[in-house]
Write a structure and sequence with these properties.
Distance between the termini: 55 Å
Strand order of the largest sheet: 12-16-15-14-13
Shape: globular
Bound molecules: FE2/S2 (inorganic) cluster
Radius of gyration: 22 Å
Structural class: alpha+beta
Number of helices: 11
Number of strands: 16
């Protein structure tokens, strides 16, 4: 159980809030690069901020304020050019640093167009392994942590289980809470990124190495897809693993009232996690880097994680052994984590694994 004040501290994520300031010290996944095969501009709300995520014609990603610095038009209705995003109203051009670099009327009619002091907020974006990450915190920007699984090859990427003994590697090695808002389970990551105080963006990234004998495998595209979360009756879908998790989370209410909880011994991890959040919020308030921020480029370029499946993911197994494996076998049969895997993604997966029906 928490006091109402502490519940507020955990919940509020906008700029200037304690939790918002803590979360802004980390690179956060915000979308999939594949989404920009079919669009170039996407309105997005993150930690209470309305923004526009775009990819310009020069291939650069930008994450900038949703509103134009001129007269506040919605930049998601603009268009991209070789070096930025142009507002659809009077044509001001903004680059990925938030600088206004063109003002068509002023540039023509005014000998000294005033471009100073009209920038907008902008956040750096990095693409890796099919995901886009953004950093929304203060300078200096911390190193971008390249988690080791992002460096693996010969695999299909896209985006638990009971009945294992306690000395199994599934329990002793493989379940990693990845501070502050993710976890890692040997061949997939899951992140929960606040959209605002009441909504959450859930992003998962999956890797499956191709069977021995099918290397080298080069994945031409890393698909991104959006899972449905409600059925036609408006009920939460509960047929798949992460959908079941979602039903449990949202059932707590738009903002969970933790003053009414009754935590027991099974919840010791919850208490530890909250205490750590409070301690790290305090560290940020004192001007220190919170836990897990990486400043050393040599460390950031390949961050190793405890991994119950490293050998399988880096060396592979013959298909016959994969089909008998307690995790890989079911995964070969169907994607059970999220409902709605698109048929073309399933087809590409089967072809990669050599189990394609076509
Ligand atoms: S409102 Fe965007 S250019 Fe005028």
């Amino acid at each position: 159980m928490l006091t109402a004040a502490k519940n507020e501290l955990l919940t509020r994520v906008g700029p200037g809030t304690a939790m918002g300031e803590l979360l802004r010290r980390y690179w956060m996944p915000v979308g999939g690069a594949y989404e920009f095969d079919t669009t170039s501009i996407k309105p997005i709300r993150l930690m209470g901020e309305d923004l526009v995520l775009y990819k310009d014609l020069g291939g650069k990603y930008g994450l900038v304020d949703r509103h134009c610095p001129h007269r506040r038009a919605d930049l998601s209705y603009g268009w991209v050019e070789s070096n930025g995003i142009r507002c659809s109203y009077h044509g001001w051009l903004i680059d990925e640093t938030g600088r206004c670099i063109e003002q068509p009327y002023e540039d023509t009619a005014n000998a000294k167009p005033a471009k100073d002091n009209c920038g907008i907020k902008a956040y750096p974006v990095r693409e890796i392994a099919g995901l886009l990450f953004a950093y929304m915190g203060p300078q200096p920007v911390p190193e971008f942590p390249v988690w080791e699984p992002f460096t693996w090859d010969n695999g299909f990427r896209e985006r638990v289980r009971e009945g294992q003994p306690e000395d199994s590697r599934y329990w002793t090695v493989g379940r990693l809470a990845l501070w502050p808002n993710a976890f890692y389970l040997g061949s997939h990551f899951e992140w929960r990124v606040p959209i605002d105080d009441e909504n959450t963006l859930s992003i998962a990234w999956f890797f499956m190495r191709v069977p021995k004998g099918r290397e080298p495998y080069v994945q031409e595209r890393i698909p991104t897809w959006i899972s449905p979360i409600k059925d036609t009756d408006g009920r939460w879908i509960s047929s798949h693993v992460i959908n079941q998790d979602i039903a449990a989370w949202v059932g707590q209410g738009r903002i969970a009232d933790r003053t009414k909880e009754n935590l027991r011994s099974s919840d010791v991890g919850i208490s530890m996690m909250r205490q750590r959040f409070f301690a790290e919020m305090e560290a940020v308030a004192m001007g220190r880097d919170p836990m897990g921020v990486i400043r050393d480029p040599a460390v950031a370029k390949n961050v190793q994680l405890p991994n119950m499946m490293r050998e399988i993911n880096t060396e592979g197994l013959p298909l016959e052994e994969m089909t008998k494996h307690p995790l890989l076998g079911p995964r070969l049969e169907a994607f059970r984590f999220h409902k709605g895997q698109p048929p073309d993604v399933r087809r590409d997966f089967e072809n990669a694994m050599g189990i394609g029906r076509n």
